[in-house]
Design brief:
The protein is α/β, with parallel strands linked by helices. The protein has two domains: 1-81 and 167-256, P-loop containing nucleotide triphosphate hydrolases (Rossmann fold, 3-Layer(aba) Sandwich); 91-166, no CATH class. The chain contains eleven helices and ten strands. The strands form two sheets. A six-stranded mixed sheet has the order 6-7-8-3-9-10, sandwiched between helices. Strands 2-1-4-5 form a four-stranded antiparallel sheet, covered by helices on one side. The protein is globular.
Length: 256
């Protein structure tokens, strides 16, 4: 089994002559938290859309567990175990927190999304759903209607529904965006906790979050890889400082 769960080779995407992603070679180690960072317009979200096949690459190749997946469709990608949080975050506001997670769990039962099935059939998923809610610190909210959850707790629920899909690789797109300090700290710790035995690739703008949990960081700028390494390495990289802050001195800590 390859030590890299995900690789891209010379991955590029053009939009009518504009190069959004340019010759990106990415290697995500199995079992790691890998952060994709960069200033606005760097190509981070486009890169995510290429990996989950919501966009088709102009050129280059994508490999998952050593197998090429470049031409596969989004549903095929998801079945392989590449799950992007917002794509499957079954956050239905008028259902309870437990019911939301239970919908995600249906995928592996043979009764996927049979909403008309008797509730008694779905109750057999309750124990697994409660275990996932315990994992993301939502056990006390199981019977709460999702519409009533604070924003940070809703993001935790999205992660729980992602976990319900049994991902081999979780792609988290700006998991702490729009959160207050307390929620950021909670979700940061949550990501660290659920990463055990899993692989996470995340786009994140909050450098404090990245510094606390990322094993490896890839910095994009204008669609290309600018630097790669640990937080310590990239935060003192002169080219990274120039791209983020227009200076070649200082530290990246706290930069958005």
């Amino acid at each position: 089994m390859s030590e890299y769960i995900l690789e891209t080779k010379n991955l590029s995407k053009e939009f009518r002559g504009f190069v959004a992603v340019n010759d990106v070679n990415l290697k995500v180690e199995r079992g790691s938290i890998h952060a994709l960072i960069g200033p606005n317009g760097a190509g981070k979200t486009t890169c995510f859309n290429l990996l989950t096949k919501f966009l088709t690459p102009t050129s280059g190749h994508i490999y998952f567990s050593g197998q090429e997946i470049t031409r596969e469709k989004p549903a095929q990608i998801a079945r392989r175990g590449i799950i992007r949080s917002f794509q499957i975050s079954a956050v239905f506001p008028q259902l309870t927190v437990l019911e939301n997670v239970r919908i995600g769990l249906q995928r592996s039962t043979g009764v996927s999304y049979h909403f008309w099935r008797s509730g008694r059939i779905l109750h057999r998923l309750d124990d697994a759903a409660r275990a996932l809610l315990q994992e993301v610190d939502l056990a006390d909210f199981a019977d709460e209607y999702t519409v009533n959850l604070p924003y940070g707790r809703k993001r935790a629920l999205e992660i729980a529904t992602t976990l319900a899909m049994e991902p081999e690789l979780m792609l988290l797109d700006e998991p702490t965006q729009g959160m207050g300090h307390e929620d950021v700290s909670r979700v940061t710790q949550l990501i660290k906790n659920v990463s055990k035995g899993r692989t996470i690739l995340m786009v994140e703008h909050n450098m404090k979050v990245v510094s606390q949990i990322a094993d490896k960081i890839t910095v994009l700028a204008r669609g290309s890889v600018l630097a790669e390494g640990s937080y310590q390495e990239v935060s003192h990289n002169a080219a990274v400082m120039q791209a983020y802050m227009g200076t070649t001195t200082g530290e990246l800590e706290g930069a958005h």
